[in-house]
Every structure is written in C-alpha cells, then in structure tokens.
Amino acid sequence: MLKSKRILFFDIDGTLLDERKQLPPSAKEALRCLQEAGHELVLASGRSPFMIARLAEELRIDSYVGFNGQYVVLRGKRVYTNPFRTEDLHDLSKFAARLGHPLVYLNESRMHSSVPYHPYVDECIGSLQHKHPEYEPRFYERTEIYQTMLFCAEREERQYEEVFPGLRFVRWHPRSVDVLPSGGSKANGIAQLIGRLGFDPEQAYAFGDNLNDVEMFRYVGHSVAMGNAPDAVKRLARYVTTDVGRDGIANGLRLVGLLN
C-alpha cells in the first residue's frame, strides 16, 4: 500500500455498479480499505445528486462530482456549479421539439420531461432505476438546470452539435445523449476538487467505463478503464482492469498499487 495520500474518482454506472445496478462486495470492501488508509474518495458521475445519494450513503462518501462535472460537493458542502443559461435551453427545446426528440431537464433534486411519455425516455431512465419523469416542459424556466438528457438514435446528435456549438453532447446510452453547458466536463469538475484539496493531478486516479470518462482520464495521472468499457475508452486509459462484475475495482486498485 502506498503511504502517501491519493485522491480517487469513481464513475458509478458500469464502474462501481454492474449491469444489474448492484455494487460487487469486492468493490465495497476495496473502497473501505482505501478509506482506512486515509485516501480521498470521490464519486464522479453523470447522475444528478438525488440519484447518487443512496450509494454515497452506503459507501460513506460525502464528496462527489455530479452531472458530468456541473455540480461539485466536497465533504457535504456544495463548492461549484455550472448551470445552463435559460436562453440556451429555450433554443434547444424548440429545436428538439421540431425534430420530435424528447428532453429531460435535471436539477439537483428533480427531473422533468418535455413530453408526457416517450418509450426512449422510459427505457433510458428505467436503466437508472427511476420512473419516467413527470411532464413539465417549462421546468427549465424556474430553476437552475445542470444537465439535460436528449433522446435520439445514435448519430442523430450530430445535427445538434452543428446548431449548438457552445453545448456539449456526450452519448451515454444507444438512445440518449447527455447535454452539458459550455465548458462542462468531468475533468473540469474534478479539477475543482483537486485544486481545493491541494492535490496534484499526478496524485489523482480515475476509474470509468464510458465516453463521458475520457476527459477525466486525460486530466488525472492514473486512469483505469473497466474491462466492460468500449475499446475506444480502453485505448485512452493508462490501465485496463477486469469487468465490473469480475472484481474490476479491486483488481484495478491492485494494478495501480493502492491495494494489497
């Protein structure tokens, strides 16, 4: 076990949780060992804080990077946010409605849909173990929105990228894309914590499995892709561990020398 303190960032879906949204016992035990050794543990997810809370409580982790970097909490205290401009969401909503693509708007405690029902929304939100959000198409006008989900087939997001060059579109599901405000990324979010805690990026480790983890990989000194990650993600990681369901977290921590 390394003696000097490190900071570690863990994606949730496909990294800590398997395809059944279960936390492998080996992962929970490995994180407990890291905490006992004095390392700083942070959840880094595309999820909203209200979707992170239960897992964070189970793991006794009170720091997280939510919404792919738009909402950062350090030891229970919010330290950084990067919400959308209302006018950007207004324009995005009009364009999506014209193309027949539903949206889901998220703040730190709730989410609402731009349509009463859509099978893509039901499938994708269901994969996160949540119900189809209630219909409230103007939700974004009365609260700060940190992330929007766009529901469309693969490659259909390209027309959005052309029309909205100031926004970021990151696919997380065959039928859904996360839309982020200008400058938004997991890398930007974790930089907020690394700076506040006095770490150097070389002292930071990141575990992930999807395209929204790539910028995080590029920022930290030690990146670990899960065995279930796409090849494009694995190629950009410094290390590749086993699948999440095959003790991927524990094996990855051994690979980088942080676990016996």
Automatic annotation (TrEMBL):
Domain of life the protein comes from: Bacteria
InterPro entries xrefs: Cof (IPR000150), HAD-like_sf (IPR036412), HAD-SF_hydro_IIB (IPR006379), HAD_sf (IPR023214)
Organism: Cohnella phaseoli
Protein's name in the database: Cof subfamily protein (Haloacid dehalogenase superfamily)/HAD superfamily hydrolase (TIGR01484 family)
UniProt-recorded Gene Ontology molecular function terms: magnesium ion binding; phosphatase activity
SUPFAM superfamilies linked to this entry: HAD-like
Coiled-coil parts of chain: none
Cross-referenced Pfam families: Hydrolase_3
PROSITE patterns: COF_2
